[in-house]
Design goal:
The chain is an alpha/beta fold and 311 residues long. It has one domain. It is 57% helix and 6% strand. It is built from 13 helices and four strands. It has a four-stranded mixed β-sheet. Strand 3 and strand 4 form a beta hairpin. Helix 1 packs parallel to helix 7. The chain starts with 19 loop residues before the first helix and ends in an 8-residue tail after the last helix. The N terminus is likely disordered. It binds zinc ion (ZN). The site of zinc ion has 4 residues, from helix 7 and helix 8.
Amino acid sequence: MLAKVVAAAGSRGAVHMSEKRARGASVRRRIAVAAVAAVAALSVVACDSDKSSDKSGKAETSSAESSTTSDGTGIDVDPKFKMKPEYDGASSSDGKAGKKLMEDNQLLQILANNVNKYLTLPKDVPIIGAECGTPNAFWDPEAETITMCYELATLFVELFEDDRDPDPEGAALATTAAVFFHELGHALISLFDLPTLGKEEDVADQLSAVLLLNEKDPELQSYALYYARAFELLGQMEDLSPGSFADEHSLNAQRNFNVLCWVYGSDPEGVGQQITSSELPEERAVRCEDEYQQIEDSWYQLLEPYIKPQR
Ligand SMILES: [Zn+2]
């Protein structure tokens, strides 16, 4: 098991322009901690696998090789792994802003490197930062690519600025990371032909939650809370129509309650204590511990063959 990167305490409150770059570095480390911690826990399952000795050999080799392939993210990279970040160009103001935020914080590199470190992928999977003309993120099952639209990161910054969050850029990066783990859920379902018992959109949210919550890491938990908050804020702006109820996605308000339920259920005596009954009704909360455990167990079971043991 690799040592975690120590998270720098992020400064809170008003931030002057001249401090933005330093704060960005702090956010980057927090993202690294989140992803490393999140996926590292999955390796515990793989250690019990009958393939563990075989895979351990590969892991040691890759670790030795990785020392020469550092790309500055602070995360060792196995050169044969397959998720590859790339940044397309941007021309609109929203596109440029999101691209800069994501690039300055090496967001895609960090997310890709963590997936590559802990999961075996069957082929190259580009993770593409792109200007899409709309805030979005998506897995393309034909091209087999994950696209993270720059406009989505920009939307989240604006959303959290309007919400008077003390660190809207950090909140946006955390939420964008959570969205990436949702898209990773779609990608893994497709690439490994995994069964999905229920709406795939909900199942993808469940993977994001499990990766963020399974180690009870406070930083990770805060990302899940930002993910929930983003859905709550988007839900408040949503003008519900019949089409909203027909959408393959659950309503934003429902996704907020789902993620809050899983945050609470994953750690009721810890971060769960921060969630009030006005945020998560008692009638739902009493079931959340079992609900979270069920989704964590389900995802572990499905991913076990593809998790690489860590030293
Ligand atoms: Zn989705």
